[in-house]
Amino acid sequence: MNDGNYEALPDHGKEEITGMLSYNLKRVCVKKLLKKENPAVPFGGKYRFSPYMACGHRCTYCDGRYEKYHVEGDFDHDITVRENAPELLEKELQKLREPGPVCMSSGISDPYQPVEEQLQITRQCAEILSRFDHPVIIHTKSSTVLRDIDCWEEVHRKSAFTLMISLTMADDSIRSRLEPGASSVEERLNTLKEFRKRGMNAGVLAMPFVPFLTDSREQMGEFLTVLKSAGVQFAMPGLLTLKQGRQKEFFLNTFKKQYPDIYGKIVELYSNRNFYGNPASGYTKSFYSRIDTIWTEHVMDDLIPHSLFRGQFSLCDEISILLGDMIKLYRRGGINVTRLKTASRKFSRWLEPRRTYYARRRNLKYLALDEELKAIAEANELEELLGNKKLAVFIQRVIRGSVFNYQTLELSP
């Protein structure tokens, strides 16, 4: 996921970091930092950036190794450092017009990977974010995020902070093989507990589960039990994907040495050469069926609840996100979503040209678009816009402050 928006500084070569593995740090200056997410989602926020490319956590399954993400060299040791990230972040935050969370994350890196302990690029970014009033989301496998809890408390005091820790198992002996450079299971659970104790939002990116190794009913049940004890508010599950090329080859070569008894089953399961790296469709279907059952039994949300992202986005974005989540939730419950999907499309057709209009006129504030939606609701014109009376009443209540419960599928108050 190299965006190409950087000019390289001189390569400093291999730099020894005391007490850690050695890394080849490539220091670069980027031209632009924040990437606007389209559509905005609670998982990745409205704006996203990462101080680094590649990652020293050395997770054997990481699809950051996939060739089309253009991460050159040894993925575990050749780390690109975006040295001017803090400077650019401060400048770009001042120019943002649309409200929405800033997410520090990347599918090919971790803001709190081992080199951060010395370089402290993420720390500098945390200090800058704490001076603004944008909600912030962090994705990480590292307990090092605790170092910056003072900054994240200040962010939460002003707006909202959500920590998303990657974790899929309660057994640290498995973790140490699959994720040798990441924090232990206990460290990550303690991190989640500390953030929850201080009133901040915390969830888990429960991905990827590895077939035949970490995805049994018993393992997932135990996993959710420890997450509940840590106060986790949601856990978003996902199954291992192995994309053809460097990622798949690296994982299989490593896995063969670690788990020779189930290696053959993994090879067979992923022999379909699926473009996205998904395993055989039958296994995928049974996995998510099992997820639905176990998550329901443990009363755990597998989507980020409305109560957590409420008020973090523009009202129009919030309604769009909510409609998408409702379609998933109702379909899962066996409810016909045809009318809901039609109404959602009508809302998008109303919203998108207006969003473009406001984007091209920098003298206008995006909040005026929210006011336009509120005016339509107050004039009882939502039913005509959506072609759905029940949904129009639902959105009116959301606009007035009601929250949708993803477990009960009811609004409150």
Description:
With 413 residues, the protein is α/β, with parallel strands linked by helices. It has two domains: 302 residues, Alpha-Beta Barrel (TIM Barrel), CATH 3.20.20; 99 residues, no CATH class. The protein contains 16 helices and 14 strands. The strands form three sheets. The protein has a seven-stranded mixed sheet with strand order 4-5-8-9-10-11-12. A hairpin with a 4-residue loop joins strand 13 and strand 14. Helix 1 packs parallel to helix 3, helix 8 runs antiparallel to helix 9 and helix 12 runs antiparallel to helix 13. The two termini are 43 Å apart.
Provide keyphrases for this structure:
alpha/beta; 413 residues; five-stranded mixed β-sheet; disordered N terminus; 2 domains
Q: How many strands appear in the DSSP assignment?
A: 14
Strand order of the largest sheet: 4-5-8-9-10-11-12
CATH C-level category of the largest domain? Alpha Beta
Biggest beta sheet attributes: 7 strands, mixed
CATH topology of the largest domain: TIM Barrel
Low-confidence stretches: 1-14
Quick structural overview:
With 413 residues, this protein is of the alpha/beta class.
